[in-house]
Amino acid sequence: MKSLGHLFFMLFFVALNNIQVCLGDCDNLQDSCPAVPPNKQTIFINGLQCKNPANVTAQDFRTTELSRAGSRDLFGASIKIVTASEFIGLNTLGLSIGRTDIDGDGLVNFHYHPRATEMIFVTKGVLLAGFVDTKNQFFQNYLKVGDVFVFPKALFHFSLNVGFEEATFFSVFNSQNPGLVSLSPTTFDTTLESLDKLKRKLITLSASEAQDVTSFMSPELESIYS
Asked: Are 187 and 223 in contact (CB under 8 A)?
């Protein structure tokens, strides 16, 4: 019995040390797995069903979804996120991509992605980008063409166009379905005067160090990070 106990302990220890914890999407178990379009799915799983490997083509790994900007919201911004549902070659790879276009003096409203970190690459214009952490501290910086910035997973962030022309940046997310949760325009005053006031407050905060943002945060942000 004693030897069986030692054997059980050894097996348990080996199993415990070989369990892989998924910090993002779980690792894929094959080279690729282009998805079956959602409207043709017959099996529902945590992810998307794979195509028959015999029917996989190079076209499955190409998309033109980000070649054009989308429609603008009331803040003058367009956010387009392409996941494995639209770009089937992304299925099981733990990635999705995005494009954001912002009118002159436009703003990407505070939002977060519950399942992914976002890394952005600026291709046009000048931006002020920042995020709020769980200690109610604020981090922001000015970005120009060629700059890269990271918004950590599940933290509220924003992007403000501070140039004289339209600004564009592309995003990569470390999840094939990052999600997007945005502060609803109905939760705060969205008059032009109020939006201009918010933009001025964002610009006046230091771009080089973290600061407490309680003075300008909306009640909803305060409740989330209190």
From this structure: no
| Residue 65 is assigned to a ligand binding site | no
6: annotated binding-site residue? no
Q: What are phi and psi of 225, to 5 degrees?
A: -105, 10
Residues shown for the chain: 226
Separation between Cα atoms, residue 127 and residue 151, nearest integer Å:
14
Residues 6+ apart with CB under 8 A from 16: none
Residue 88 and residue 60 in contact, taking contact as beta carbons nearer than 8 Å = yes
Give dist(CA 217, CA 138) in Å, integer. Answer: 10
- With H, G, I as helix, E, B as strand and everything else as coil, classify residue 40: helix
Residues linked to residue 160 through DSSP beta bridges, in sequence order: 107, 128
Q: What is the mean pLDDT of each run of 10 residues along the chain (226 residues)?
A: 54 46 58 78 75 93 95 92 94 94 91 95 96 88 96 94 94 94 62 61 54 45 41
38/53 Cα distance (integer angstroms):
17
Ligand-binding annotation for 111, yes or no, is: yes
CA geometry: angle 144, 159, 72, nearest 5 deg = 110
